[in-house]
Amino acid sequence: MADLSINLAGIKSPNPFWLASAPPTNSGYQVQRAFEAGWGGAVWKTLGDPILNVSSRFAAINFNGQRVAGFNNIELITDRPLDVNLKEIYETKKRFPNHAIIASLMVEPKQEKWHEIVKRVEDVGVDGLELNFGCPHGMAERGMGSASGQVPSLVEKQTYWVKEAAKTPVIVKLTPNITDITVTAEAAVNGGADAISMINTINSLMGVDLDTWNTIPHVAGKGAHGGYCGPAVKPIALNMVAECARNPRISVPISGIGGISNWQDAVEFILMGAAGVQVCTAAMHHGFRIVEDMIEGLDHYLDSKNISAVSELIGKSVPRYSDWGNLDLHYNITAQINTDVCINCNKCHIACEDTSHQCIDMIKGDNGRSYLKVREEDCVGCNLCAIVCPVEGAITMVEQTSMQPMTWNERQAALNSSK
Amino acid sequence: MSEHEQYLAEKEKIDQLLSEGYNIYHAVENLDGAFVEFFHLKSGTKKTLHIRTANARKYFSSIFIQQKSS
Amino acid sequence: MVTIKTQRISITDLERNFEEADRGFTNQEALEESNRCLFCYDAPCIKACPTGIDIPSFIKKIASGNLLGSAKTIMSSNPVGASCARVCPTEELCEGSCVLNHSTSPIQIGKLQRYATDWAIKNEQTLFKAGTPNGKTAAVIGGGPAGLSAARELARFGFRVTIYEAAEKAGGLNTYGIVSFRLPQSISFWEVEQVQKLNVRILTNTMAGRDVSAEELLHSYDYIVLAAGMAHVPDLRIEGEELKGVYDAIEFVKATKSGKLSRDFAGKRVAVIGAGNTAIDGATCSVRLGAENVKILYRRSVEEMTAYDFEYEFAKQDGVEFRWLTAPKRIIGDAEGQVAGIECVQMALGDPGEDGRRSPAEVEGSEFTLPVDAVIKAIGQTRHLPLIEAFGLQHEYGVVTADKETFQTSNPKIFACGDILFGKGKGDAMVVTAAQQGKLAAYAIHKQAQTAGTAK
């Protein structure tokens, strides 16, 4: 059994799987059930001045019959008074002293407001704080959440105020509703953040009902944008984590969030620089019990790779992530179709013929049997055929011999020097 | 002519000049592709090739980098 | 653990036994199955469908919620597509060719086709419109799958079409010949209605050659489509055939679709002669009418049986017994002239004959008697010879001679399609094949009418 424990900027937990600040962490009852199920930590549903919610709060996108490819919510932060939440945090921490409880916080961008809440929350014994600068709906209209998270100076200033009062580690949770997340990440670091977490949810409108023409979801016939999350956002989140991880000016640990549904997703985030991960949608879809496979799957993966601790995985893929200009222009792969495995659905042919480089031929053999063949010289190695192929192992992308590596940056430098 | 054949034709032209002793000394790239200028050191003659295909534009630049480093 | 299975056959509620056995897909099942379809390009299932339905398209339309479009895609290629969804041997056609046979399991195309057409039936959709009248007339002899198919396509081209149907209702085999628990009559009637909605006149209880003469038809119409199918089951030519309790399988099945089920078979012992799909129908209908024991007697072996595998399986599940290499010698009657038993003889198979099938021969001295109360004859069907000859058409033992592509007969204004063309080595006697031939005959007639029109 590998060591799955993590230490994220001083916050320790028995495994890297935390529940993100969201409906699953709304109460002591829920967080205790989660810890019983095996979750290593929980970021409590955001604390602040108790809000009012609307009815009809969630919606999901189904893709080709697959439910919850993406998920959205218009629920706000906690609607319960602070003292009620603090009492439950205290009780939960007492019952589960080795699990991490992080308090998510959101108040108006005023120094005294931040000082007050930090003090009251730390008094009940939380392991850390997470500043919610990311919620894109509702609270943003009141100048909080992503509204302040989109302004680097506000991120820096509020982080600074929190750090003035905080004794526990401070994580700044960033909004993806911004052009370049490294700018706000850097602002958080400059403000003294001990760690950053990302991503919060993405502005979204889930759909429009074709019969009523109402938005999905709607509240008495009216809708407002929500926050998008779930499996569909994973690639967006992973990129943002990776961009921060490879940025030398962002030197703090990262808590990865966004569409993580299983141990494999978690490993990807950790390889791309996350020191731990947070999960919400998958738990909302299936319940807390999913963590059992996450823990076991991660453990078996580490064993199979002869890695003794999950911490050794952190950031291992970061050096492989770079700018487009550093990619080798001569690297050459071409598709190869294994006709023994191919079932002749011809999807690769039509995808290539209509939308790529017209290099997969449908051929009738001498025996009358049809087969598909790649004209390798015309194949650009785009991967499309292998992507649309429904059969494992029918299409392989094979490396071809090529010239000495040459990146775009090297090429342009050489050409420009000749001017 | 397929794109690959166009590339081969352009590559052949480049290789021809190289075998004749020409070197690439300059290239201009614009909306129409690359205009690669060759120079023959002994005779002092210049020649320009209009290179259009992507693979040939990769090819000449690699040759150019090689020539510069040697 | 004890699991209580739903009783397959009820001995008290016979009507329930004749309700459609397969319940069809639920919305969720249809959605999941349709999403499983790969949407192949140049899909083999299209090529395997005798009517060439664009199967990936109709399945994609189910997945997208475009059920009207899905039903149109199916029915435009196959005017009896709702029936075919239930009766086609899909394992041998579309589903048999599905590429997923080579990776997971084939898409259940038949059930998806049924789902889409059921939607159209339930929502009372009219899928097609009659074409602009072209001033030409056509008579279609026989309102079965081939005739309906030809009539609908001709009506879409603008022909004024009249169907002459001998039975009380149109639909032919689909209405009367296929057992209700596989194909309810309502499905066939909907398909008939769809054709009628294109201003096609259907004259029922009107038999060509009896109620209207061949000359009159030839005189009154520009074109004739001969789609009269086949006739009754031939005689066994054995002693006792005239006894009470001897039935023609076609008539027997038809009676189960008349709206009132006979109680006469309850607790009885039935012998069915033959092992084609009609024999299976006769046997399973007997079981469902409450017969205590049903045996299929076949003079050859299981390998030569012409029934589809799924029909065979279905019959076995119904509890039908199969007696291979058993031929009837005579039917024994009691004092009242009622069937009391059947004398049979064991057969042995010889070398393969010209048709590749091994011919059976009696085993001397192997006679034995089975006590039975009813005998159902299902040894093929006879031809409509008088009708074919009334039209003066070339034929081979009652199988009309027609062009393979245009279906034109020896009389240029008469086209033939469906079972009237079916005979030894002349294609498959499938509903779907009949539908395709009807379509092709209509196309050929339309083409000819157009050429004739421009020549004027």
Automatic annotation (TrEMBL), chain A:
PROSITE patterns: 4FE4S_FER_1 (PS00198), 4FE4S_FER_2 (PS51379). Its cofactor is FMN. GO terms for cellular component: cytoplasm. Residues 333-365, 370-400 form the 4Fe-4S ferredoxin-type domain. InterPro entries: 4Fe4S_Fe-S-bd, 4Fe4S_Fe_S_CS, Aldolase_TIM, Dihydroorotate_DH_cat. Keywords: Flavoprotein, FMN, Iron, Iron-sulfur, Metal-binding, Oxidoreductase. It is an enzyme of class 1 (oxidoreductase). Pfam families: DHO_dh (PF01180), Fer4_21 (PF14697). The keyword 4Fe-4S does not apply. Pathway: Pyrimidine metabolism; UMP biosynthesis via de novo pathway. It catalyses: 5,6-dihydrouracil + NAD(+) = uracil + NADH + H(+); (S)-dihydroorotate + fumarate = orotate + succinate; 5,6-dihydrothymine + NAD(+) = thymine + NADH + H(+). CDD domains: DHPD_FMN. Homodimer. Involved in pyrimidine base degradation. Catalyzes physiologically the reduction of uracil to 5,6-dihydrouracil (DHU) by using NADH as a specific cosubstrate. It also catalyzes the reverse reaction and the reduction of thymine to 5,6-dihydrothymine (DHT). Belongs to the dihydroorotate dehydrogenase family. Type 1 subfamily. This is Dihydrothymine dehydrogenase. It comes from Peribacillus deserti.
TrEMBL record, chain B:
This is Uncharacterized protein. The lineage of its organism: Bacteria, Bacillati, Bacillota, Bacilli, Bacillales.
